[in-house]
Design goal:
By secondary structure, this protein is of the alpha+beta class. The protein has 4 helices and 12 strands. It has a 6-stranded antiparallel beta sheet. Strands 9-8-7-10 form a 4-stranded mixed beta sheet. The chain has a two-stranded antiparallel ribbon with strand order 3-4.
C-alpha cells in the first residue's frame, strides 16, 4: 500500500502518453487537449477529417452541413443603423425611419443564393414535393433557383433542418441588411456607387451593358462578410411580414411577425433592376404566394453555443 501513490502516478502518466500516441493529444503540463495549427482542439472534429461543427466563436468559418446543403459562413454579431437617410438617392419612404439594430449573436448565412442544384436535391429527397420551379430554359445547376414563393422557401429550410438536425430558416430583414452592409453605411457595400463588374443588375441605367439574366452564384466579388450577390442577381425572400415603415420594428434582429403577413419582404434587387433598386436599404413587399423569374432566396442557420452538435462537412 505504501507504493500505491507511486503506482497511481505512473499509471496516469501511461494513460496520458497513450492518448497522445492515439492522436487525442494531451498537454502533460495542463492535462488539456492541445491546439492544432489551425486553432482547433486536436482530437475534435477538424477540417482535415472534414468534421468540425461551427459555433458562435467561429467568426468567418466556412462550413457545409451535408453534401447537398448550401455553403455557409459564420457572420459576427454587431450593431448597425438600419434603413436609409432621407438624403440617399433613390430612397423610398418605407426605408425609414432609420434605427439602431443589434444582431445579438453570430449566425450562419448562406454564402450564395440557393441554387437549382440544391433545390433539386430537396425534391429528390422528398423534402420539396409541392413545387418544381422552372428555369425558363436557362439551365439549372449553379444558377440561383427562381420561381419560388415564400412558402416554397420555408419548405426548403424545413427540409434542411430535418436533414441536418440544425435550425435552418430564411434571414430576418434586419439580418439580411446587416449581412449585406457588412459594416458599411453607404448605399451599396461597394460604396456610393456600383458597377456591373461588381453586381448583376440592369447596367444600361448607368451606361453599362445589361445581362438581363441571372449569373451562376459567386460569379462576381463578395462583400466583406464573404457573401456573394447581396446586390442584384435575384431578389431574395426574408422572414418578415410587410410594414410600410419601420415604426415599431424589432431592434434585436428578429423577424417582424406583425403587419401585413399576407405579404412578405424581398431584398437585394435583381438582374432586371436599376441601381437604386439593389441598394442595401431597398425593401419591397409582395404577396407570399408570388413566384417570378427574378425571385429566389438564401438561408440562415442558428449556431450552437458549444460544439456539441452533430458533425458537419467543413470546407
Amino acid at each position: 500500500m505504501q507504493n500505491w501513490p507511486r503506482v497511481s502516478a505512473l499509471w496516469c502518466l501511461v494513460v496520458m502518453l497513450f492518448l497522445a500516441a492515439c492522436g487525442n493529444k494531451v498537454d502533460v503540463e495542463t492535462g488539456q487537449k492541445k491546439h492544432s495549427s489551425n486553432g482547433l482542439m486536436e482530437g475534435d472534429w477538424d477540417t482535415e477529417t472534414g468534421r468540425n461543427p461551427p459555433k458562435i466563436t467561429d467568426i468567418g468559418k466556412v462550413f457545409r452541413d451535408c453534401e447537398e446543403c448550401p455553403e455557409m459562413i459564420v457572420v459576427p454579431a454587431g450593431s448597425f443603423v438600419m434603413g436609409s437617410p432621407e438624403s440617399e438617392e433613390g430612397r423610398m419612404h418605407y426605408e425609414g425611419p432609420v434605427h439602431q439594430v443589434t444582431i445579438p449573436r453570430p449566425i450562419g448565412v448562406g454564402i450564395f443564393e440557393v441554387t437549382f442544384q440544391q433545390w433539386d436535391a430537396c425534391i429528390e429527397d422528398g423534402g420539396c414535393s409541392t413545387h418544381r420551379p422552372g428555369d425558363n430554359n436557362r439551365g439549372r445547376g449553379n444558377l440561383p433557383v427562381v420561381n419560388v414563393n415564400w412558402h416554397d422557401c420555408a419548405e426548403y429550410t424545413s427540409w434542411l433542418s430535418e436533414k441536418t438536425g440544425y435550425r435552418y430558416r430564411m434571414l430576418s430583414e434586419a439580418e439580411w441588411e446587416y449581412s449585406a452592409r457588412a459594416g458599411t453605411v453607404t448605399p451599396f457595400y461597394t460604396g456610393e456607387s456600383i458597377s456591373t463588374g461588381q453586381a448583376n443588375f440592369a447596367g444600361h441605367w448607368i451606361g453599362e451593358t445589361s445581362r438581363f439574366e441571372p449569373l451562376a452564384v459567386g460569379s462576381l466579388s463578395a462583400n466583406d462578410f464573404g457573401l456573394y450577390d447581396m446586390h442584384g442577381n435575384v431578389t431574395e425572400w426574408v422572414l418578415d411580414c410587410w410594414n410600410e415603415s419601420y415604426v415599431g420594428a424589432p431592434t434585436d434582429g428578429s423577424g417582424w411577425q406583425d403587419g401585413d403577413c399576407s405579404s412578405r419582404v424581398l431584398r437585394g434587387g435583381s438582374y432586371a433592376d436599376r441601381p437604386a433598386a439593389i441598394r442595401s436599404a431597398l425593401r419591397v413587399g409582395i404577396g407570399f404566394r408570388h413566384r417570378a423569374v427574378v425571385i429566389g432566396f438564401r438561408v440562415a442557420r442558428d449556431l450552437p453555443m458549444e460544439s456539441s452538435s452533430p458533425p458537419i462537412t467543413a470546407l
